[in-house]
Amino acid sequence: MGYQLTTKLLANSLTGVKIAANFWTTKDAVATLLFAHATGFHKETWDPTIYYLKDSSVKCNFIAFDARNHGNSALENKSLLSDECSWRTLSEDILGLVEQLRFQRPLIGIGHSMGGCTTLLAEESRPNTFDGIVAFEPILHPTKGSTMGVELVEPTKRRRSVWENRQAVREYLNSKRFFRTWDKRVLEEYVNNGTYQNPGGKIELKCPPSQEAATFAGAPAISEYCFENLNKVKIPVSFVGGDRSATILPDNISIFAKECPQGVAHVIPGHHLIPQEQPENTARIIHEFVASLVHQESQQASQAI
């Protein structure tokens, strides 16, 4: 059976904001994957990874959503957004989605950077929200006094956010070192779906720089708290980091895994932006985790009969 794509705007049952989400569904699904993006990105940046996963041997439903102040969610919630962004609130948005939609189990959380942290935080807050988690470079800090993200706040406030057309956006991004290592398909998703035509006819980022900066500013306190409570995460968790990451030190990936009863660490060639740079490899890592989890749950079900 093939996949059907639907886009929905959901009124979050716990927090009241609207959450935009893409649903890739198939009747053959044996699990559900819920994708949470990084700060400054949006749900469609997961599409190239999902493209590969759709062809994998383990069929799943895929749901990728925009955080409340990112992507299409940001456009819908513009009048509700404050100057501060609590990552705890972002994790509550995840809990609201899970509670509202009652996804087919097993439910596996897939998160990158901020999305990895908020997915883990949701599981810490409400155990067994997920049956497993794959966290790519999650924003966690193993010591007190974290300043993670603080250095990005002021530069982000000043970043350019309006262009004449999408070709101008494309050329601008290609001129920046930050985007040069991205897979071209992911970059196209960012250009086409991370922007919109504003009332003046210009092309503008859906996530305003002020909201992206506010999200970075919310990182330090919660990155410490989430790390300190990793022992509450009893489900299988795969922590994935890049060996050249300047954001999450490779050694910290192993430290994170040791805090979780069923945590495992994988350090692969790459930087912080693994899903943006390596969608095919990202899909392979996710597939291996999902296949193992589904097999394990199938064995447990057989033994229970």
Automatic annotation (TrEMBL):
Keywords per UniProt: Hydrolase
Keyword Nucleotide-binding: no
Gene Ontology molecular function, alphabetical: hydrolase activity
Domain AB hydrolase-1: 33-284
Pfam families for the chain: Abhydrolase_6
PANTHER family the record matches: HYDROLASE ALPHA/BETA FOLD FAMILY, PEROXISOMAL MEMBRANE PROTEIN LPX1
Protein name according to UniProt: Alpha/beta-hydrolase
Source organism of the structure: Basidiobolus meristosporus CBS 931.73
